[in-house]
Design goal:
Shape: globular
Mean pLDDT: 93
Number of helices: 10
Helix content: 40-55%
Number of domains: 1
CATH topology: TIM Barrel
Strand order of the largest sheet: 3-5-6-7-8-9
Radius of gyration: 18 Å
Distance between the termini: 39 Å
CATH superfamily: Metal-dependent hydrolases
Strand content: 5-15%
Low-confidence stretches: 267-271
Largest sheet: 6 strands, parallel
Structural class: alpha/beta
Length: 271
Amino acid sequence: MLDLHYHLLPGIDDGAPDLDTSLAMARMSVADGVTVVACTPHIYPGLYENTRDGIVQAIAALRLRLQDAGLPLRLVEGADVHLVPGLLDGIRGGTVPTLAGSRYLLLEPSHHVAPPRFEQSVFELMAEGLVPVITHPERLSWVEHDYEVFLRLSRRGAWMQITAGALTGRFGRRPRYWAERFIGEGHCMILATDAHDPRRRPPLLAEAREAAARLVGATEATHMVLTRPQGIVDDVAPEALPLAMFQQPGFEPRPMENDGMLAKLLRPFTR
């Protein structure tokens, strides 16, 4: 498996605070069956002033430590890129990295408020030849009111990355509901852990693959953790990779069980 959203680099953002934590997380990933990790610290001007050069240097240093520890984990570059003014200039200028230097960009919207011109901003990135991979839409507080926005973006060519722990219930019932809905309706392209530490937000991907398999079958679950992520790292055009399920001929969205009851359970989150 490949895990392409991962805060593994020590002391660079709100992920692993030190080298010992990074090594502990790497051991967990290797034991879980992950062979490639994209190191994706936040890039958020005013809070996390990371750049491509700094990320690449931090990866090189950690790579040596992994070799010393005998951990066979390949590291590639990336960033958890926040949607802010000037983003395109940063990408063009080489200060904002894409995933493994590919056309795929890990893009994080604001958690609590829908960004102004969100759809237009995503389309502008796509017009530059990029494939925005929108991170954890299931965990955004505004997904209830704007779910159709994500479906429109997906239909136009943006990718959706669902969090492994959200699908397995580690983030609670609300994110799990939306994770299952994105997957069951065929709009999840990849799964990733968004790991920050070994306990509260651990790098456990295999359990999410199994949860996805129960929803959409083992073949599609494998595409989410292996085929499409490998295509990203290899910079394969999206049309040459397995189609998202909603694009596949004859696909019928999985009906959500007890949807009315879940709506009642989720009511406190939508006030």
